[in-house]
Amino acid sequence: GQNIDQPTEMTATEGAIVQINCTYQTSGFNGLFWYQQHAGEAPTFLSYNVLDGLEEKGRFSSFLSRSKGYSYLLLKELQMKDSASYLCAAMDSNYQLIWGAGTKLIIKP
Amino acid sequence: IAGITQAPTSQILAAGRRMTLRCTQDMRHNAMYWYRQDLGLGLRLIHYSNTAGTTGKGEVPDGYSVSRANTDDFPLTLASAVPSQTSVYFCASSDGDGRPDTQYFGPGTRLTVL
């Protein structure tokens, strides 16, 4: 079956660094997406990885290991506005996204 | 401003009633999707359309129907609503040209079925 696992909730301190992990199992693989979703709002695209390695985009970086079925999202210099849910989604062989339940990130001052 | 609009923003509906959720995009995207989002679960695909005139079933299609008469509009209909259809519904779109591409989401419709 197809499955995405990510932690339900994480807490971090403003100014710190946090890593949100995601493991996936899909029928075929066409890349790994990360989305951010603030409470009561729509998901918004953060990053896409299809090759192994780290992609850096400002304060946010995303890593992929295809052999391990593993990805992480790294958030640096945390700000209060980063409090949100972070959704991991893997694209299968039919180009459909399989979504994790999301990780709620709580930032404390 | 380009994007996706959904209507209504929220709705309370009596069980057994028929309801259509509207979705319109102005990005000329080929592919469109309907998801539901429930607490503790990931987004689940209800129906999708790869191009105008075609539709397909997702993970949880029962009780829902869609149509895609043109590129811009992708309405979702609940023929006879049941309480288990209480959820937040998101419409999304993407280029859909057969390669991995980013999905862009509308603001959502919060539906409560009593």
User: What is the number of E strands of chain B?
Assistant: 11
Radius of gyration of chain A: 13 Å
Provide a count of the helices of chain B.
0
| Sheet/helix structural class of chain A | mainly beta
CA(first)-CA(last) distance of chain B: 35 Å
- Largest interface: which pair? A-B, 23 and 19 residues
| Whole-number mean pLDDT of chain A | 96
Structural class of chain B, by secondary structure, is mainly beta
Shape of chain B: globular
Global mean pLDDT of chain B: 94
Largest sheet of chain A: 6 strands, mixed
User: How many angstroms does the end-to-end distance of chain A come to?
Assistant: 41 Å
Give the overall form of chain A.
globular
Order of helices and strands of chain B: EEEEEEEEEEE
The helix content of chain A is under 10%
Number of helices of chain A: 0
- Count every beta strand of chain A, where a strand is a DSSP E run of 2 or more residues: 11
Short summary of the structure?
The complex is a heterodimer of chains A (109) and B (114). Chain A is an all-beta fold.
Topology diagram in text:
The complex is a heterodimer of chains A (109) and B (114).
Chain A: E1 3-5, E2 9-13, E3 18-25, E4 32-37, E5 44-49, E6 53-57, E7 60-65, E8 70-75, E9 84-91, E10 97-99, E11 103-108
Parallel strand pairs in A: 2-11
Antiparallel strand pairs in A: 1-3, 3-8, 4-5, 4-9, 6-7, 7-8, 9-10, 9-11
Chain B: E1 4-7, E2 10-13, E3 19-25, E4 31-37, E5 44-49, E6 56-57, E7 64-66, E8 76-78, E9 87-94, E10 104-105, E11 109-113
Parallel strand pairs in B: 2-11
Antiparallel strand pairs in B: 1-3, 3-8, 4-5, 4-9, 5-6, 7-8, 9-10, 9-11
